[in-house]
Amino acid sequence: MVYVHNSSSIYHSEEDPFDVKAAWKAIEPKTIRRTDRFIQLALLGAYQAVDHLELPKETGLYMASGQGNLAVFKRLRDQRYIQKQPPKPVDFINSLSNTSGFYVAQYLKIEGKNINISRLGFCIETLLLLAEVDLEASVERQILVGGVDELQTPLPFTRKTLGICEERALGEGSGWMLLSKERSGALAVIKSERREMDLDELLLYLQDMESSVSILCGQRMEDEVAVIQAHSRTAEVLKNEESFYETALLGAIHDFIENAAGSRLFIDTYDGRYRVVKVDIL
Question: Rounded to whole angstroms, how far apart are CA atoms 193 and 84?
């Protein structure tokens, strides 16, 4: 089994601008050079999740993002095609796929496996599944898992690329969890269902679920909530109504661990398929 030992979540909507640089400077007065806003979001969330612990050097760092550091790509595009200038060296370096992971590992002084996943749909589910497999196979003893998404502008274009309706507010966040196979001192147990399901398979899966388990439907599940309520024995079926960003699942899990008890299924969908993550509070 895989246990959650620490978690944190930073979340802000498009209506609530967040000065990441100022928040990070309040923690670390000596600003880490050559970092941009995306990297600072990652650093801030990871710092809060670790909570002053001194991690073993071999701790792994597994990170995911729905869009990656898209802001730095936009800057490089503008420098090359609008300003007709060579890219700034700092932006060029920060455009690498896992620069943010490098800075987080450097700050926390960890040297384990450092990977980064960026994809639309199921990015956190994929990351959690990879972390769980590596922990259960004893490839890693402890993994710091993180998900970071920065709010991108212009907002109408971002909604279109993410496949989000105009009524849904966009957000950004940095959610992190420290995972291991050790039960002692853990906050919760986490388990990712290893298969994708269509809706009929999901409903069959939910029929065997205990009635005491609550369900949180993901941000892309506009029509399924009523169907799930009608086909499951679970008394509580909720919809995640927070502002949208791809890695919001980690924030939702953190909120559940911090503020609730019992067991919860976190269900999300992408392209007609469904994935499930189960969390049991200890």
Answer: 49
pLDDT tens for each residue of 136-155: 999 999 999 999 999 988 88
DSSP 209: S
* Per-residue pLDDT tens over the stretch 236-280: 899 898 899 999 999 999 999 999 999 999 999 999 999 999 999
Does one domain contain both 183 and 209?
A: no
- Of 99, 83, 185, the closest CA to residue 142 belongs to 185
pLDDT digits (tens, 9 = 90+) for 16-55: 888 888 888 888 776 677 888 899 999 999 999 998 889 9
**Reading across the β-sheet that carries 273-281, which strands appear in turn?**
114-118, 60-65, 142-149, 171-180, 2-13, 188-192, 273-281, 263-270, 214-217, 237-239
Question: In 112-256, which ranges are E strands?
Answer: 114-118, 142-149, 171-180, 188-192, 214-217, 237-239
Classify residue 84 by its DSSP letter. -
Distances (CA, A) of 188 to 70, 161, 165: 33, 35, 34
Among 187, 222, 257, residue at a domain's last position: 187
Peptide bond into 154 cis (omega under 30): yes
Two tokens, residue 146: 């993180």
**Can you give the CATH number for the domain in which 181 is found?**
3.40.47.10
